[in-house]
Sequence to fold (390 residues):
Amino acid sequence: MGLVYLDNAATSFPKPPRVYERLREYLERYGGCPGRGGYRMAKEAEAVVEETRALVAELFGVTEPHRIIFTLNATDALNMAIKGTLVAGDHVVTTVLEHNSVARPLNRLERRGLIRVTRVGVSPDGLIDPEDIRRALTDRTTLVAVIHGSNVTGALQPVEAIGPIVRTHGALFLADASQTAGAVPIDVEAACIDLLAFPGHKALLGLPGTGGLYVGPRARLTPWREGGTGVLSELPLQPEEFPYAFEAGSPNTLGLAGLRESIQFILQYGVKWIRAHELSLTKRLLDGLRVDERFTVYGPSMPEHRIAVIAVNVAGCSPAAVAEWLDRAHGIAVRAGLHCAPGAHQALGTAPEGTIRISPGYFTKEEEIEQCVAGLREAADALWRTAVTV
Ligand SMILES: Cc1ncc(COP(=O)(O)O)c(C=O)c1O
Fold:
C-alpha cells in the first residue's frame, strides 16, 4: 500500500528533489558555524544563511532583508512578536480562529492581568469582517494579531483590507502566515503588515526546525532570547542591530540551506502558479465531497476564499475513527481533531471532537484527491455499518 499524504497543513511532504540532493553536499562542504569564524568554511556557511534571508525577503516583498529574523518555527516567531512588543496596559485585537501559538501567549498575559484582549468572531463561512476589527480597536490597542489562512477551515482572511485599518489607527499588525507563506502571494508593504510570522517546513517546502519573523520598521521589539551573536561580542547587552538582536545562538544552518533550495524552487514556479495549482486541487476535492450528503464541509463557499485546507465530517462517524480507517485501509494520511485551534472549532460548532482535515500540497496529484474522496465514501459505508451493528 502506498502513501497518500494529505497533511501538508501540519508539515509539507515530500520536499522538492533539490532539497534532498543539496543537503548532503552542504554538510560535506559548508559545515562551519556562520558568523563565528574568519575561515572559508564559516564564511561559506554565512553566505548560505544570508542568501536564504534575501530569498525570503524577495518572496514577501521586503526591501531590507536584515529585517527577516530566523526562528525555530512559526510558534517561536509568534511568541517573539507577541512577547517582544506588548507591555502592561496594552489592548490586543485578535480573532477566535487563532492557533494556540497566538491564543495561548495572549491568554496567559491576559490571565496575569497584564493586557486586555478582544477576540473578533467570524461569519458562518469562517471569514473575518475587517469592519469588526475596526470596531474592536480602542485607544489602548497596540497590536492586532490575525491568522492569514485558517489551519482548520482553510478560510483565507482579507489581510489586505485589515492592514490599512490597523496602520491608520497606529497599532502594529501581526499576520500569522503559517498556512499561507509559499502558497499564497504575500506583500508586506501592500498589506501594511508590521510583523509576519512564517514556518519554513510547511508550504515553503523546507525542513522542520525552520521559520522566521519579518519585523517592519514601525515595530519596536524586545529580544526574548539573548546570547552569542558572533559579532559585537564586546557589548555587555544584546546588540540592537538587525538581525543579531533577535538571533542569539548558533543558527540551524542545515535547515536554512534546505530552505534556500526550497524557496529557489518556489520562486522558479512562482507563488501565483502554486496558488492556482492548489486552488484547482481544492476545487476538485470540494466537488467530490459536496455530492455526497453524508459529508459536511466547513468553511467558505467560494473556493477563491480558501487555501488548500478542507475540514469535513462524516455523518454518524467520529473524525478520529474516519482518519484512522483511511490510514489503515488505504494509507491516506489526514489529520483529525482540533488542530491546535479550539476557538475555531467552537466557532464552527465542531468542538470537542473537531473535524477531519484534508490538506493537499504542492506535490499532490489529482488522482490522490480522487482516492481520498473514494476512501471517505468507503469509510462512511464501513463505519456507519459498524455503528448500526453496535
Ligand atoms: C495557523 C498556524 N499558526 C501557527 C502554527 C505553528 O507552526 P509551527 O509548528 O511551525 O510552530 C501552525 C501550525 O500548524 C498553524 O497552522
Observations:
- Residues 33 and 42 are 5 Å apart (CA to CA).
- The radius of gyration is 22 Å.
